[in-house]
UniProtKB/TrEMBL annotation:
KW Disulfide bond (keyword) present: no
Subcellular location, record wording: Cell membrane
Pfam family, one: SDF
Membrane protein topology class: Multi-pass membrane protein
Name this protein carries in UniProt: Dicarboxylate/amino acid:cation symporter
Key words of the record: Cell membrane, Membrane, Transmembrane, Transmembrane helix, Transport
Keyword Metal-binding listed: no
Residue ranges crossing the lipid bilayer per the database entry: 7-29, 41-61, 81-102, 162-181, 202-222, 234-259, 349-375
Main location: membrane
Xref: PANTHER family: PROTON/GLUTAMATE-ASPARTATE SYMPORTER, PROTON_GLUTAMATE-ASPARTATE SYMPORTER
Length: 442
C-alpha cells in the first residue's frame, strides 16, 4: 500500500485528536486524557526542543562557513532584517484596518465583560502575564541588546529561551572560523557538517511519531478549553483575527509567486507538516527543527540562507502575533476605553507591536504578555489591564495556535525571498527520508 503523505497523516491525527477530545469531554474523561494521552504530546514537544539548539548551532556554522566570504553574510543579514520588518508592518497595518472596519468591540455586552472579568481577571493565567509584562517594561531601552550577548555560551545553550544568545554566539564563532582560513577551519567544518546531518536525521525520526503526538496535543487542547458560549460571544473578535491571518497567507502566496516564481500551493504543501505542528504546539521555537528541515530539503532554500533566516525569524519575526496584538489592543479599547481610540494611538500601536513581536518569546501565550506592553504604550488605564486580558483570555489558545502557524509561514516565506534574491533557491530540492541508510546499518 502506498504510504500516506506526512501532512495527511498529521491531519488525520489532528482530526482524530479533536474528535477524541470532544468525546472525552462528553464522557467526563478529562483526567484520563491529562494523565494518559497528554504525556505523548509533551514528550514530542520535548524531543523537538531537545534538538533545537544543536540544530541551530550546527546548521548556522555550516551555513556561515560554506559562504567563504563575510560580505555575503552581511548581505543576507541586512535583507533578512529589512524584509522581516516589512512583513511585520504589513501584518500590523492589516490588523488595524480590519479591526477599525469590522468593529468587533461593538457587539460585546456589559454582561459578557462582567462574566469574563469574574472568570478570568484573577486567574493565574492573566495575573502572571500582567506581572511578566511589568517586569519587562521596567528595563532600559537597550536591554534587548544586552540580553542578546551571553556571558556564558554553555549556559545560553542550556536555556531554550535564550535562542538569540545562542544565535549571537554561533554567528560570532562562524565568522571567526571564516577568518582563520579554510585550511585551519577544515576539521571543525567537517565536524559541524556531520553534526548537522545527524540532527536533521533526528528530525526525520521524531517526525515518525508526529501523527500520534498531534492526536495527544489536540485532544488535550479540547479537554482543557473553556466555555463554548464565550467563544460565541467573542465570535466577531475571533473572526477579525482569523480573517487577518488568512489574508496574511494570501499575502505570502503573492510574495512567493511574484518574487520566486514558484507555485504558492506547492510552497504551502511542502511547508504543511511544519504549519500543522505550529498549530498543534503553539510554539514556533518547538516547530523550528521541522521548519528548517522542510525549508531546506523540501523547498530548496540553501542552508547558507535558511540556517540564519529561520532561527532568527522564529525569535524576532512574528507576523501572526503582531497582527493579533493590533486587533486585540484596539478591540480592548473599543470595549473598555473608547476615548483612547485616536489616530496617534493607533500609530503608537504599529511601532510598539513591531518591537513587541521582536521581543516576544516563541512559546505559547507569549503574545498576550506583549499585548500588555502595547496597551501600556498608549496609556490604557492600568487598572483595566486584567479586564482587557480577561476579555481575550478565553479564546487565546485557539488564536495562539493560528497565529503561530502564520508566524512559521512568514519565516519560511522570507527565507525563500532572501534565498531567491541571492541566487540560493534550488530548483529541484532533494529530500532525505529517515531510512535512506537503514538497510546498510540494520
Ligand atoms: N505562540 C506564538 C509563537 O510561538 C507566540 C504568541 O503569539 O504567543 O510563535
Amino acid at each position: 500500500m502506498k504510504k500516506l503523505a506526512l501532512h495527511i497523516q498529521i491531519l488525520l491525527g489532528m482530526v482524530a485528536g479533536l474528535l477524541f477530545g470532544f468525546i472525552a469531554l462528553q464522557l467526563g474523561w478529562e483526567s484520563f486524557v491529562t494523565n494518559w494521552i497528554k504525556p505523548l504530546g509533551t514528550i514530542f514537544v520535548n524531543l523537538l526542543k531537545l534538538i533545537a539548539v544543536p540544530l541551530i548551532v550546527a546548521s548556522l556554522i555550516k551555513g556561515i562557513s560554506d559562504l567563504k566570504d563575510i560580505s555575503k553574510f552581511k548581505n543576507i543579514g541586512v535583507r533578512t532584517i529589512l524584509i522581516y520588518i516589512g512583513t511585520t508592518i504589513v501584518a500590523i497595518t492589516l490588523g488595524l484596518l480590519l479591526v477599525n472596519i469590522l468593529q468587533p468591540g461593538d457587539g460585546i455586552s456589559s454582561e459578557t465583560v462582567d462574566k469574563l472579568t469574574n472568570t478570568y481577571a484573577k486567574s493565574s493565567g492573566v495575573t502572571s502575564k500582567v506581572a511578566e509584562a511589568s517586569k519587562q517594561t521596567q528595563s532600559g531601552p537597550l536591554k534587548f541588546l544586552v540580553d542578546m550577548v551571553p556571558d556564558n555560551a554553555l549556559k545560553a545553550m542550556s536555556d531554550n529561551t535564550a535562542m538569540l544568545q545562542v544565535i549571537f554566539f554561533t554567528i560570532f564563532f562562524g565568522i571567526s572560523m571564516l577568518l582563520i582560513g579554510e585550511k585551519s577551519a577544515k576539521p571543525l567544518k567537517k565536524f559541524f557538517d556531520s553534526l548537522n546531518d545527524v540532527v536533521l536525521k533526528m528530525v526525520d525520526l521524531i517526525m515518525l511519531i508526529s501523527p500520534y503526538a498531534v492526536f495527544a496535543l489536540l485532544a488535550n487542547v479540547v479537554v482543557t478549553s473553556g466555555d463554548p458560549d464565550i467563544l460565541l460571544a467573542l465570535l466577531k473578535y475571533v473572526g477579525t483575527v482569523v480573517l487577518g491571518l488568512l489574508l496574511m497567507v494570501a499575502f505570502y502566496c503573492l510574495l512567493v509567486s511574484i518574487f520566486t516564481k514558484k507555485n504558492p500551493i506547492w510552497f504551502l504543501k511542502q511547508l504543511s507538516p511544519a504549519q500543522l505542528l505550529a498549530f498543534s504546539t503553539s510554539s514556533s521555537a518547538a516547530t523550528l527543527p521541522v521548519t528548517i528541515e522542510r525549508v531546506e530539503e523540501h523547498i530548496g532554500v540553501d542552508k547558507e540562507v535558511s540556517s540564519f533566516v529561520l532561527p532568527v525569524g522564529a525569535t524576532i519575526n512574528m507576523d501572526g502575533t503582531s497582527l493579533y496584538q493590533a486587533v486585540a489592543a484596539v478591540f480592548a479599547m473599543q470595549v473598555l476605553w473608547p476615548e483612547g481610540l485616536s489616530f496617534s494611538n493607533q500609530i503608537s500601536i504599529v511601532l510598539t507591536a513591531l518591537l513587541a513581536s521582536i521581543g516576544s518569546a516563541a512559546v505559547p501565550g507569549a503574545g498576550m504578555v506583549m499585548l500588555v506592553i502595547v496597551l501600556e504604550s498608549i496609556g490604557f488605564p492600568k487598572e483595566l489591564y486584567p479586564v482587557a486580558l480577561a476579555l481575550i483570555f478565553a479564546v487565546d489558545r485557539p488564536l495562539d495556535m493560528l497565529r503561530t502557524t502564520i508566524n512559521v509561514t512568514g519565516d519560511a516565506t522570507v527565507s525563500m525571498l532572501v534565498a531567491k534574491s541571492v541566487g540560493k533557491l534550488k530548483d529541484n530540492p532533494q529530500s532525505k527520508e529517515w531510512d535512506d541508510h537503514y538497510k546498510k546499518v540494520k
